[in-house]
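pasting for ref. prot 1 ->
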Amino acid sequence: MEPVDQQHVLSTLHTARPDIDRPKKRGHGA
């Protein structure tokens, strides 16, 4: 479950659009 979470976070950051994937994750580009 740990590697999956890390991969998910990396994928979201890699998309360069975390606000669209998760608007309540860190408020990046919000």
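and prot 2 ->
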Amino acid sequence: MLLSVRRAAIFLILFLTYLYYRTTGEVQLAQIGLLSFAAIAQVGPAFAAGLVWRRATAKGAICGILAGTLVWAYTLLLPSLADAGLVPSGFVQAGPFGIGWLRPGQLFGLTAAPLAHGVAWSLGLNTLLLIAVSLLTRPSAIEQVQAGQFIPSGTAAPLPAFRRWRSSVTVDELIATVARYLGEARTRSAFESFAAERGLKLDLRHEADAQLVRHAEHLLASAIGAASSRLVLSLLLRKRAVSTKAALRLLDDASAAIQYNRELLQTAIDHVGQGIAVFDRELRLVCWNRQFGEMLDLPPECYAVGVPLDEVLRGAQAEPEEGGGDVEARLARYAAGGPGAHERLTQGAATIEARSDPLPDGGIVVTFTDMTASVSAEMALERANETLERRVRERTDELERLNQALERARAAADEANLSKTRFLAAASHDILQP
């Protein structure tokens, strides 16, 4: 979708450029270039604010760029079109409705070179609206995280500076921090593989070097995103020098980024056709999607964080196809996970297949798939096969009856033929011997 929008925008810009060139053919190339530079300069205030001002917001940037572009079109593009005869010259010379202080070349009575006049007004209004709207609106969580990547807050240095100073964080502390997000086993395996590839020996009491910190950042980024991983490591690496206020601000930024990633993940799994439920190593519900509760027709108290799996099985309206089933046996089968941990459930006319798979940290993820259409297709195929077999049997029986009737008819014909032969023989004998 984004690629299509970009292509359409490129095509539109080229088309408008060609149209402007054809309609104002006598305009020098230098003048066209100056107009273009003045137009592209409208992104300058937003670009600069994003690099130096943490308070800048996307809404402020959009409002500023739109306002600056409109003023650029009014003060620079409109007079150019008037010179080409595409716009009445009286509108430019006398102003709209004869209002002199609204003349594009002398806006509010200020007189200057046309290019300087248009650029000053457009960039000025652009910057003013950028600041005003940014101050009136609150940055979103993702905007705060992105600002933290580019603008140092005095509490943490960007990760590229790791190579210029010692971290004062031990390898053990670094592994423990990453393990909170990835799990103990996966984290230790990743660090051991990293050390083996580079011929290093991990000493948990030694300070972590820049390479190890960067590896930890990459591991965290796979779980909580690049921005969040930078914030977490910045807080860890500067924990002895960060003030309480700065630490709380970093924690707020990290929490906002993690919450954003969680909401994004929740939205994604809610759009999956399967029901998904994740249980920890104690078989307590950790997360789920909307289809999980709908497929099993669970009461609200059965899909909350911390609800045991056995309560979910008892509260589900869907029952195993083989019968009610022993909850303890089903619980053990789900907890084992693997190829054998699956069963079919019935919920009214619906058929649901439940499958359990183990997680690295000892928990399980259970998926529920609506198999109603597949089961209906299987039943229809079985009925078609039964009908076909019945018809084959009927045709076979009918063919056997026809064969028997044909055999009897042929025997009767043979008997009649034999009687005819005998009659002709007797008649011939009587004729020859009177």
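Confidence is low (pLDDT under 50) at residues 154-165.
The first strand starts at residue 275 and ends at 279.
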